[in-house]
């Protein structure tokens, strides 16, 4: 009887039965199927997901689709919607017992992905966001969320999952949006900047929605405790963990990398923070995201991203999208009503974003066409939308049908953004043509200069060059000092306009300290000079896009001249040292695409001399670049304390005549320049210069008749003993001269041109700085020829003179082709 009572007691217990089988893998030739054990099958599943993802990325490349589309599609294809229809494939590759590994790995992927998102997010960029982007973001969050929640109540009726539907339709994929903007080459336009700033704010709100959704669906009766504990954890991270990390960073010697112990400790902290927020009642992702957000040092951020990103995004996240695809079943929404719901969701969600942007445009200065483009772009969805949906199904707030509906809707919404933006091309509101060069600038109008600064060592020589530029109240100079900072750690590019004479932060970072130094130096220059206004800016961008950002800023500021430092700096022993190879690529990109004239400043003592360069030499060989260089030197010579020597190098009658076709065959990039027209322009401009400066004793003009490049080199070296502080030369692109043709073949730095390269790389007794000038030119789309700044004006002037006819060689001149080592202008077919 007692035994029977014991048996009845056992019946009330839960008993778990499992197959006690130990798999021994002895290869494919012996033993059980090698895909039966968990681990080998898991690796095969990962390999399959990654390979399918890469294949889809390649297949969608011609359509310029973002990578998120391939990731979602790869998961759907592996799931029950496509390959999963085959029962043999499903049982062999995705048996039910493998979910015990796939789902935990997918959640682990989300934890470290959330950490990366927090690590890359720049809170300071959000605080600096302009009112237009804030208005677009707020309106684009509140209204779409309300519409998404209402749609959920209409089609489902229960209250559990409305927050996940609304948040998924509201969120904008920041990283995916950045990818689309870069492909469309509009990331640096006003539309791109507004859309990115709005998406950044929207991304933060999505994390708040996600935390709230977990709290509501997890334990409704304890929601206040969940939110209170999560808030306390956030405060703990901000006011305790972040200062501790700052202390550790301060103890690390500058320039020394972070050890494996530091990196492993931070990665362990990610898991620990995830455990805390999971215990608080939200989700481990929230803790990982907040922890990534409070990491203080950009160098540490960059080290963590380099260690973690490829593995998480390349290996872990495909597992997450594979799980999403396994939970998506298109067959459930195969009826007509379900597809009507999908279309309705897409139309209402997209329309809500666009209408919000249009409403904001009414109260701001955003043009209507740009507002529509911003509205379309903010409909971009990314991994965050899929994370929200996955969270909704994990919390049993979304069933398989509603989950599948939303996955398909998000996929289609993201796919249509790229085709919708193809038709948009930003209007190029450039300054009038004549104002993009110094040569065509009027003497009584403001000269606008953009001075690029890679490091604080560039500041003294640039300011001394500007001081020598003869700013007066009658002929003022407006200087935009642009500090260029490589984008590391945080993923948000930004442009900060600094307020003059404003106190900086109490404990500035290295970049902020440099910005304070630049602001102070240019403020002092403005206070000590008449007719000068300055504005300091800081641009954070990757080196790969830095040249494009500089050109866009030059256009926005209507600059006529951009000054860029050379990529080499002088060492203590007088040699030129390469400080950063990436700077050379940036400079070359600026020379190719600049909307105005450009000057490369090679500093070899300007900061060590007096307040400004007193003794200037200008070497004139002919062509648009030399005219621009002479125009700048002429302006500097108007300063009473400055002397100018202009040496014109002219090929003698005995000089070798060069065959343009032969010169073309030795070069890289095609340029069409009319040599006879340029000679006329040279003579005209030099005559004006000589007449205007005939009575100025501080200006010396000489002409040298030479036979070849060897005599030209000797003549330049003979000027070495005249103690010139600064040499100004033109880059000389597109000009064929027997005095420089041989030098071009030996250029170490083609971006300086043959004469600039000679002055920088050859040995001279005296130390002097060099300014190499390139005049803005434009490509004639009709015949592919190049027109310099004064070419069209001179052409119109000559057409009005009866003494010059087309037969005299003006209109009927045959343009020949030359090539330029520095890829200055690519010829369009």
From TrEMBL:
Membrane topology listed for this record: Multi-pass membrane protein
Protein name: Cation/H(+) antiporter 15
Pfam families: CHX17_2nd, CHX17_C, Na_H_Exchanger
Transmembrane segments: 38-56, 68-84, 104-121, 133-155, 161-182, 194-217, 223-241, 261-279, 285-304, 311-328, 340-364, 403-424
Annotated localization: Membrane
GO biological process, one term: potassium ion transport
Cation/H(+) antiporter C-terminal domain ranges (all copies): 616-777
Domain Cation/H(+) antiporter central residues, every copy: 477-608
Homology family: Belongs to the monovalent cation:proton antiporter 2 (CPA2) transporter (TC 2.A.37) family. CHX (TC 2.A.37.4) subfamily.
Residue ranges of coiled coil: none
Domain Cation/H+ exchanger transmembrane: from-to ranges: 58-416
GO cellular component: membrane
Alphabetically ordered keywords of this record: Ion transport, Membrane, Potassium, Potassium transport, Transmembrane, Transmembrane helix, Transport
